[in-house]
Amino acid sequence: MLILGVSLIAYSPGLSAPRNYTTNYHVHHFYQNLTVSGKVTDNQGQALAGVTVTAKGTERRTLTNDEGMFSLELPAGASVLVFTYTGMQTQEATVSGASSIVIEMQPLDNTLDDVVVIGYGTQKKANLTGAVASVSGKTLTQRPAPNAANLLQGRVPGLVVTQPSSEPGRDNPNLLIRGRGSFGTGTEPLVLIDGVTGSLSSLSPDDIENVTVLKDATSASIYGARAANGVILVTTKKGRKGATTTSYRFNIGRHTAIGLPDLITNSAEYMELYNAAAVRSGLSPANMYTDDQIKAYREAADRNKYPNFDAIDYYFQPATVMNHNVSVSGGGERNTFNLSLSYLDQNTYFSQYNFKRYNALLNYSNQLSKHVTVGTSMNLAYIDRQEPPVTSQFMALSVYATGPLYGPYLPDGSGRVASKAYMFEGRNRNVSEYPLMGNQYTKGYNLNAQAFVDVKLMKGLTWSSKVAVFYTDEFFKMHQKPYEAYLTQEMDPVTGDYQMFTFGPDILGVTDQYTKIITPTIYSTLNYTTAIGDVHTISALAGYEQLYNRYQSLRARRINSVSPSLDELAAYSTTGEAIYFFSFPSNHPRLPSISQPYEWALQSVFGRVNYSYKGKYLLEGNLRYDGTSRVSPDYRWGVFPSVSAGWVMSKENYFSNSLPFVNTFKIRASYGVLGNQDINTYAYQNTLDINVGYPFDNNTVQQGAVVNSFKDQSIQWESTRIVDLGFDFNAWNGLLGITFDWFKKTTFDILASQPVPMSLGLNAPTFNTGKMRNQGIELELSHQNRIGDITYGVNAQLATVRNKVLEIKVPSKGSTIREVGLPYDAHYLYVWDGIFQEEDLTDPKVPKHAANPNPQAGDLKMKDIDGDGDVDGDDRVVVKGVYPDYTYSFGLNVGYKAFSLNAFFQGLQGAAYRQTGWGVDPFTQGTAPTTKWRNAWTPENRSNTLPGIYAGTYVGVTSYQASTFYLQNASYLRLKNIVLSYTLPRNVISKIKSKELTVYVSAENLFTITDFEFGDPERTSSSLSNPVYPQARILNAGVNVKF
Amino acid sequence: MSTSNKYILYIAMALMPVAIGCNKDFLDRDPLTSPSSGTFWTSEADVQTALAGVYSRLQADFFGYQRVYLDAISDNAYADPGNAFLSNLPALTTGGINPGYSSGSPLGIMYSTPYKVVTSCNYFLDNIDKAPITDAKKNAYKAEVQFIRALAYFDLVQSFGGVIIYRNFPVTLESVKIAKSSKEEVYAFIEQDLDFAIANLPDDAYNGHAVKASAQGLKARVLITQEKFAEAIPLLQEVMGNTKFGLSNDYAALFKTSGQANAAVKKEILFATQYLAPNNIQRSGQAGMDIELGWFSLIQPYKDLADDYEMTDGLPANESSLFNAATPYANRDPRLDLTLRVPGEVWKNPSTGEEWTGSYATSTGFLMEKYVDLSRAPFNANTSTATDQDYIHLRFADILLMFAEAKNEVSGPDATVYNAINQVRQRPGIAMPAVDEARYNTKEKLREYIRHERRIELALEGQRYNDLKRWKIAHIKLPTMKTPAGTPFVFEQKHYVLPFIQYELDNNPQLVQNDDY
User: Fold this and answer.
1) ipTM confidence score
2) Does A467 touch chain B (CB under 8 A)?
């Protein structure tokens, strides 16, 4: 958006006058030595303090005060005022007769005059030649979501953010820039906070100034061996020179679970359907409900004893989430500061959960002299997560598995907890058992501490250095104890009381886990910029960086205590204790991940050269030379170069003459190679396995050590080559903006296992062998306009990625396929072909089903793809849907006087996901069928879409879980967020000495358009056997106030 | 502070990070939780740890307790198809030897496990020179490891004929993908390793480590396998004259944990794969000899073996007056009862007297008793944590029988030959009559008798299959056998060497398949 207008008003201090907008400057002749006063606001009408107002061509200047007011006496001959302010477009106003003016500054967002943060510096957007996208913190915080990482969703074309669930503290999204780049190592982008490693998820959203995403080789290659999956640069808010501003923001939200299955809640119906299912599945009659039992439920007068319990309704309670942020920022002649404190208190549907996050940020800088600036940044987060001993998808599935036959407690009013109704029922734990079973918590500190010094050595040459430490300290405790729970419908023949039954605790005792991660980073850069005449601009950067990472952890568990309600390890005896166990029981999903201590280090030199010819022809070259401890000394160092060029055609005379309405048209191209050093820490070293020994002379076992795996000493990091072509287009002063990129990203030398001769005598090593390509486009359209009092804007983004495996040593086929020429892990499924009917059983044309050799009518029928008369492994086909065809988002904003409305939609098209188990397969662990199963196949109801009802696993249906029967279109369009805000009139808020006060209401996930039935379509995995922890619909209300 | 001093200070501040960063070893990061090549081999303790690692390789597959299953591809026993650890074993007797098996099949592990041993040995041999110990000690350690490498290559050459020789730990994967050497070259390599071992191993009683006599005995076996009988004789004589070794005073106790701890029994052992309960057992889970043999009945001896035991009068059953068809296994060589559970025999726990009746049914009627420790009965899921009897690779009785065989082949029957056989037959508790010198009075007749004695003495110890092959009678004897289901055995000339599995050929294009596969 370019200049939209300046308003001239008659202004008297203390009075608020009506504002008149015009679309052009009013110019009048007037006297010399005029004193001009006025007011500067931002585009929302809020006063801006600290704006520099200069009389053009003179040294005379002043700053606006807290109310945005200024007064300046113009020297003779001066008639133009220049308004400058960081983050805003510089404006000029010609002063005429009027002595008082109002200037509305426009933010730099979406303009080519914008300065964006890039690797080790900033650059004018106009001079960019790479694919770089930037989002302001202001845009991000339009959504008051708890986790900053999730706020990036839909804001950057090519960055796919998938939030796994709404579970407090476990809602960190999957981030993927331009598709899945590797199958050997991580695919997550590098995230840097103020230039160094940090945690985006633990950041307070209020502290983000802006986020830049580096997508192509030229923008990312300055980060060399860490940049293959793209780079996300987060800049925190700094102070600004000028009067001190205190702001406060409060938000309260109500979370309601969405994407829940519609389960049958009538007990008698449940029991009858179950019996039918059990018969079909060939279960013993002993494991069915008797007629008397069913009758008791159907005809019960006492619904306390015989409930029709709606577990989903009961257990998924709406929850309240609150956050507060206070910040004080400002600065004097020599220093700036920003101190910000945030508090988040997040509850969820279940009572045992609570997540609290406390953030403190202090950014301070001081100009020691004309040449030297020093500063520091301290960013501390403390998280405190309380949970039941079972979390995430397991919590959701135990709600589903509850069924309608019993509530949380025994019907006798004793408050004792029910486990299920009848002994024979195969159920999971009742959700009401979890508080008895125990609890767990995680307390973690994240500290990102930095100090920097910038020295201006001479004109155009700056030397910047930074020392930073990112430190994470996390403590986890799980405490489980024995407890009692009872059947609601069976009595103990001995005691006459309710029959006791429970699975009991699953990780009995106290489990403690400590994890510490420390990452010190040091870097130093020299930056030189010079201009030769008005024609050539050259800038160069050279730098050195080193970083080190160490991970340490300890996990310990004790089981036996005389007082199992105590939760300190020391209260338990050492019998049966386990220290540093990785996999007890094997890879237990209830325990947080843990790995052996490790360390790695990276050392780098890098450089960048930019050249601009009259701002029309742009060239950039980057080079990074990286050494990593993860690769053997002989192969340790790698070179990552990139080049790019841009041509600002709109600056050519013939172009601007023929198409004067085009403000900017720039085409750009880049090419480069990036690395991925995120490979196994000691991948090249012959480590010795010490889990062996030999008992010489049957005496004691002598500790042994053997080499078990072959290590390829010559392995290197994975590399990614990216070609990017794009253009930026802006016309009619913001009425149309287009940014387009086409890219081809090829990852090669992917580290993957490779079959070896057995005579090697060692396990297969990891080699640089695989190759994969992602190719796609990204398109961003924007439109910004003002009609009278109404400002409005539309912004839309669309991105596609096509993934293709080009080389893989060990192809595999299961329910997904890994093979050259196909997308990695594409669905590889049987094709569902309706339901077996009675006559199909004897029809010789109906193929034999290898996994279901003796079908019953009502079973799933599959297509015999190869036509050999048998449905077997050869009849699986590649089915698209693992990767969406495209992801998109669009936002609308409308402002009318003090009101502003923002709506933000996000979605994806062409994905198809598979789901089995709870909520899909009826009676999985007792889960009630969804209501659609009322129309299941029966001999009378010859359905061709739903098989006969079955109990959990049944050969006639669940043998074909890897079939398209279980696959559903997961395309969706979601109103991610809508917010309506109102800025209170100045004459009202000035009474409380406030500079600004905005109140708003907003909603997240208000509606979703999708055909997906198996829970929420927004999920991180394309194939799941556990239900997801539900997403939330959130209704928010909040206030922003500044003093 | 003057302005220039200030500048110096600022520049120093800016330089500081760079100064900190210029640490030469900054990128050298060794694993923190396991030794690596960068941190190991710095003391004698490291050498001993690595040595224990090499020996621990012997606990796996056919180098450990499972070696007894090799008798189940001979005429001695039937391999129950229910053995999940060694599936496809029975097929190897009925013509099922082909390259199509997987790397985890018996055919696969016969190839892969020895190479795991070889690679471990080569890792040790390539690195021990880094350790700060005397050359004499280095040579003694190397000698142990070269003995083990010879043991592995001996297995490979017996199974597959010519195989690839690796003298060093692999540096690159390509260096592993090379052509095989000839059978003769492999034998030469084995003899070279054993010569070094004999020259450098201490002349001690067996103590868990390979000793000089272990290497001498193994070399003798390597030589007689190549029919170099004359060369074997002096080696065997030297062992026979070594007073640190002798026959056990209790045949059955040789194969039980308690017996193996007894000096009077242990003196017979020249080399074994050792185990120690509860932390270094044969195999965790429901496994180990007691469970696999005594409970799950995974080895079922053939009647052909049982019938080969002499009557106590030294005559074959069909010639002896002591034979009674109603009680066919009464009055037999005592070793029959100590080796097999014959039909009708009741097993009792010797310490509690309690009967053990839990064994799975046997399709031949016989069960293996050698190596089954009934003092641990009743066998259950926990028995494996106590199952730690050592598997004996080489024992003094074998030395005596090898001597008898070699001497007879070189110069025919003489007193030294008869004496060697008689020592074995007449040990305490066995006390069989001496060899009928009149009856076995020619080289050919005595050869048959020595082979018979060897089958009896070493029954179900994993020797029979390779004995049949080196005597070149496998293609004659085995096709006379039938499995319990009546399927005839198949053993053709080509089966004297096994095929390399297809997986191996696929991954090493230099490896040429053996003839006729």
Assistant:
1) 0.93
2) yes
